[in-house]
Design brief:
This protein is mainly alpha-helical and 241 residues long. The protein contains 15 helices and no strands. α14 crosses α15.
Length: 241
């Protein structure tokens, strides 16, 4: 984990640098990194090098260091999410510490952050390095959480089937992000309903259905429902929407 005070300094320095400059500054270590005080296995430099290489390979396959179009953005995000989830072997508890993601963004792969979110004249926005709560807005934290919530038994196909706004709606809404089972079921049934009613706006369908689920939380604990009950609730929200 990278200490927040040092991360903030690095972001101010690196959010406007060129990709070439950031590649030279990238590293597998930094003096301001710390490890969890108890439990877990400390990551080794070789593991970080392999992760760094894997993410850069995915970036190059999608045009790095050239400009990104929407299709390449989505392919990079989906493929990088799978790589992060499968290679890091990290618990959700550890992933909830923003220092994990600021280390990846500020130290290990700052050039990829600048490439994915180049920004305008002011450079890359700081949240793409720092990430906020759980690292959910961090370039890499957001992808890990997507794979964690929507992947199961090695199947990450939902990451390729859902659009950017749809993924944001699912992973940044506590009603869904708080429970991977609910998130996966909602995503699968949303795609089914969107396919059946293709004349509807997918974004309108999702936003309205999520509002309906949120209303139910006043008196219904989704995590206590049997699978068939949960599906009935989700289908009801999507059907009404």
């Amino acid at each position: 984990r990278l200490l927040h005070s040092e991360a903030s300094e690095l972001v101010r320095e690196r959010s406007r640098l060129s990709l070439d400059e950031l590649r030279l500054k990238s590293s597998t270590a930094h003096p301001a990194t710390v490890f969890a005080p108890t439990g877990g296995t400390r990551v080794q430099p070789l593991q970080l090098e392999e992760l760094q290489k894997a993410i850069r390979q995915i970036a190059r396959a999608n045009g790095y260091p050239g400009d990104l179009d929407l299709a390449r953005q989505q392919r990079f995000d989906a493929d990088a999410a799978v790589a992060l989830k499968t290679r890091m072997e990290m618990s959700a508890s550890e992933a909830s510490h923003t220092g994990v993601w600021t280390f990846l963004a500020c130290v290990l792969l700052p050039d990829v952050v600048r490439w994915r979110y180049p920004g305008g004249e002011s450079g890359t926005t700081h949240e793409r390095f720092l990430g906020g709560s759980r690292g959910i807005r961090n370039t890499f934290g957001r992808l890990w959480w997507r794979a964690h919530l929507l992947g199961t038994d090695g199947d990450f196909s939902l990451l390729h089937q859902l659009g950017e706004d749809e993924l944001v709606q699912i992973t940044e809404r506590p009603v869904l992000a708080g429970n991977p089972e609910v998130a996966r079921l909602f995503a699968r049934r949303f795609l089914d309903f969107a396919g059946e009613f293709a004349e509807l706006s997918r974004s309108d369908l999702m936003r309205d259905a999520i509002k309906r689920l949120r209303r139910l939380l006043s008196f219904l604990a989704l995590e206590l429902l049997r699978p068939d009950q949960l599906r009935s609730v989700v289908d009801g929200a999507l059907g009404d929407a």
